[in-house]
Amino acid sequence: MSTALVEQTDTINALLRRADTGDRRAIDALRGECEAAPELWKEFGNIARQVRLKLIGKISGANDVVGEAVAREVATLRRAWAGEEPMPLETALTERIATNWLNLHYVEAKYLQALGELTFEEDTWHCRRIEQAERRYLRAIRELAQVRKIQQPAVQVNIGERQINVAG
C-alpha cells in the first residue's frame, strides 16, 4: 500500500473514531472525504460488510494476521457461493450466508473456549445459541438454492402428441 494511501486511511479512521463520539467537525470532514471519493459512501453504507468486519474483529481479537486470514477466507467463500455473474438477490443472500457462517463459527469457538467450566444451564445456553446460528446459516443456504432453482428456465419438449415440461 502506498504511503499516501496509508496516510489517507489513517486520516479517515481517525475521523471515524471522532465521528463515533458525535464530533460534528469530524462528521463534516468525513462528508467532505466522501464527496471527494464517492466510493467511500458505498464503503460506509455497506452494512453487510460492516457486520462481517465486526464479527471478524470479535473472532480475531487484537491479532491482525488472524483477522486478515479470516477476511480472506470469507471473501473466497463469498465469491464461490455467489458464482460468476450473481444477480442482486444472489449477492444479498451470499452476504447473509457469509455473515451466518462467521457467526456460527464464532459461537462455536466461544463455546469451546468455555467448555469444561460451564454449568449445565450455561452449556445448554451455548448449545441453543449454536443451534440457532446453524439454523440461520442453513436457512440462508436453502434460500439461495431456492432462488437459483426459480431462476432456471423451464424447457418444453414435444414428442409426437406428448408434451414434457422439464425444469432446468
Entry keywords:
2 strands, 77% helix, 168 residues, single chain, two-stranded antiparallel sheet
Note the main sheet. 2 strands, antiparallel
Order of SSEs? HHHHHHHEE
Radius of gyration over all CA atoms, rounded: 22 Å
Q: Largest beta sheet: what is the strand line-up?
A: 1-2
Count, helices = 7
Please state roughly what percent of the residues sit in beta strands, choosing from under 5%, 5-15%, 15-25%, 25-35%, 35-45% or over 45%: 5-15%
- Helical fraction equals over 70%
Distance between the termini: 46 Å
Q: Low-confidence runs (pLDDT<50, min 5 residues)?
A: none
Instruction: Count every beta strand, where a strand is a DSSP E run of 2 or more residues.
Output: 2
Rounded mean pLDDT is 90
> From the helix content, strand content and strand pairing, which structural class follows?
mainly alpha
Q: Which word captures the global form? A: flat
Please outline the helices and strands.
Elements: H1 3-20, H2 24-36, H3 39-45, H4 47-60, H5 64-82, H6 88-114, H7 120-151, E1 154-159, E2 162-167
How would you sum up this structure, described in words?
The chain is mainly alpha-helical. 77% of the residues lie in helices and 7% in strands. It contains seven helices and two strands. The protein has helices spanning 3-20, 24-36, 39-45, 47-60, 64-82, 88-114, 120-151, and strands spanning 154-159, 162-167. A two-stranded antiparallel sheet has the order 1-2. Helix 4 (47-60) crosses helix 5 (64-82), helix 4 packs parallel to helix 6 (88-114) and helix 6 (88-114) runs antiparallel to helix 7. The longest helix is centred in the last third of the chain and has 32 residues, at 120-151. It is flat and about 75 Å long. The mean pLDDT is 90.
